[in-house]
Every structure is written in C-alpha cells, then in structure tokens.
Amino acid sequence: MSNIEPPKIPVWFWVIAGVALVWNLMGVAAFFAENGKTAEDLAAMAEAERQLYETYPVWAKIAFAAAVFGGAIGSALLLARKQLAVPVFAVSLAGISIQMIHSFFIANSMAVYGPSAMIMPIMVILIGVFLLWFSKNSAGKNWLS
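The chain above was modelled as a monomer; its predicted structure follows.
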C-alpha cells in the first residue's frame, strides 16, 4: 500500500475549470445559433452580413465546431482531472485559429462589422491560449491524471 498522498488541488483550479466549462458551453450554443439560422433569419440581415453567412465555407464551420466542442470537452476533462484535456484544448485552439484566419483574412468580416467586432475574437483567442497553458500547467503539477 502506498503512503503517497495525491496533490491537493486548490479551489481556484475548480473555479477556473468551472468557468471554462460555462464559457465553452456558451460557445456551443453560439455554434448552434449560427448554424441554425432560418431563411427568415437570413432575410432579416443586412445584405453584407447575409452574404457572409451564405458564403461561410464548410471547413470554417468544422473549425468552429472543433473550437467550441473541443473547448467544452477540454473543460469537462479538466473538471474530471484528466490529462487528455491538454491535447483537446490544443485542437480547440487550432480550430479557433483557423476560424479567425477565415473571419479576418479571407471573409474580411471587419468590413461588415467594423473594428469593434475584434473584441470578442481577441477574447476567444486569449482564453483559448490560456486554457491550453492552464491545462499544461495543471498536468505539470500532477493535478491531472
């Protein structure tokens, strides 16, 4: 029988992991809202915005799905204290990166939404980077198994 005690997990770990799960579930909800628009929803949009939606390529939708579902699964894995969270957050960050490259360099969404539309994508990128770092750091402290 081993006398080695598992490392004590600080409360803030659980807070961060829980907030991360809520954040990423909001991303999942946004994914379904974006991909569930009806013809009436599209007709109510401004012409430039409607064109963005109608020309959104499948590969960018797949990246969006990888970003939000990867983030949600990674957060759940953090809460379960599993090391698998690290590569899942890496996939999520890759999805975020691909999605943002499409939005800002291919679709030029800033021309439609204006510079203030950069705030949320920058937050998404920063949070994605943080969650990957946080999961790696947690694994390094043996908080994840």
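The chain has a mean pLDDT of 91.
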